[in-house]
Amino acid sequence: MIAREALQKKFKVFILLSSFILLIEVAGSIFTKSLALLSDAGHVLVDLLAMLLTYFSVRLSQKKATSKFSYGYYRGEIFSAIINGVALVLITLYIFYESYQRFLSPRAVKGPEMLLIAVIGLLANLYVVLKMHGYERENLNVRGAYLHVLSDTLTSIGVILAAILIIITGNNIFDPLISALIGAFILVSSVRLIKESIDIFMEATPKNIDLENLARDIQSVKGVRGIHDLHVWSLSSDLYALSAHVLVDKDDIDSINRIVSEINDLVKSKYNISHSVIQSECEICADDNYEQLH
Fold first, then answer.
1. Which segments of the chain does DSSP mark as H helices, in order?
2. What's the rounded Cα separation, in Å, for the pair 284 and 77?
3. Which fold is adopted by the domain 211-285?
4. What residue segments make up the domains of the chain, in order of their start?
5. CA distances from 130 to 35, 125, 146, 180, 192 (A)
6. Alpha-carbon distance 189 to 192, whole Å?
7. In angstroms, rounded to a whole number, what is the distance separating the alpha carbons of residues 225 and 243?
């Protein structure tokens, strides 16, 4: 699991870099009259807001559980991820709109200056992407911020490509064309992020956990005769919870504590489920309608 204290320190640096990129690109877009740079600057602004949101939601998730929020504040991270995804969709729609306007009426763009500013933005974004890479695999909220920066990195590459083509050909149409292509990529990533976040809010089974395989593994524990009412859900993108009823062999009724302990160890080591509630039932007490999973 990600050390949230370490994430906070890293995000402070990421926030400062994003602020620097934003100032450079806003000034550059005004000077060069480049839509691609302006789109990138707008995207960087969303990046900055996303990082701030991620930073504070990570801090929130560290607060201790209360009587009202007995699971703690982990879901704050998922709420933040949804906001990030929606913000990305909105900025993409803006890019599409501006690209359409520029297609209808291309504007003169200062290619060399645009190229220089885009290179500076690319280098800063690459640093953030490399430092953040790996963390996004375990935490959906961090993935939202990571997708912001990754898409902005690709935007910077697109701006560089547009600038080079404008310098070579003198045709300003490449400015809105590259912007539209980048917008399409951002839109796909945004929709995927929103979908994953909604799945967690709806308490869907994590996509990397197969309930049938999990049930078979639990039933392989010595003394377990069956399992029912098995549920697995996510408290946050990197914290899973489980509840289940297990039927214990009548000959192992005195070993219930050992059996439950083995199940807890199993689901934690193999499935990364750190919060589990196991209700044991003795075989002779089971209802006639009890159904075993095979």
1. 4-32, 35-61, 75-104, 111-132, 140-169, 174-201, 211-219, 256-271
2. 44
3. Alpha-Beta Plaits (3.30.70)
4. 4-201, 211-285
5. 27, 9, 10, 25, 22
6. 5
7. 17
Whether the CB-CB separation of 226 and 197 falls below 8 Å is answered with no
What confidence tens digit (pLDDT) does each residue in 8-47 have?
A: 677 777 788 888 888 888 888 788 777 767 767 766 776 7
Phi, psi of 143 (to 5 degrees): -60, -35
Its sign, for the CA torsion 164, 170, 175, 181, is negative
Architecture, CATH, for domain 4-201: Up-down Bundle (1.20)
Structure-derived torsion over alpha carbons of residues 75, 78, 83, 86, reported in degrees to the nearest 10: -140
What are the two backbone dihedrals, phi and then psi, of residue 73, each rounded to the nearest 5 degrees?
-115, 25
Specify the amino acid at residue 245: H
Which among 241, 21, 225 is positioned nearest to 118, based on CA atoms? 21
Total residues belonging to the chain: 294
> Which tokens sit at 292?
């075993």
**Lowest-confidence range among 189-193, 221-225, 283-287?**
283-287
Tokens of 41: 């600057």
Q: What is the DSSP string of 192-241?
A: HHHHHHHHHHTTPPPTT--HHHHHHHHHTSTTEEEEEEEEEEEEETTEEE
With tokens 């064309």, the residue in question is 177
pTM reported for the whole predicted model: 0.63
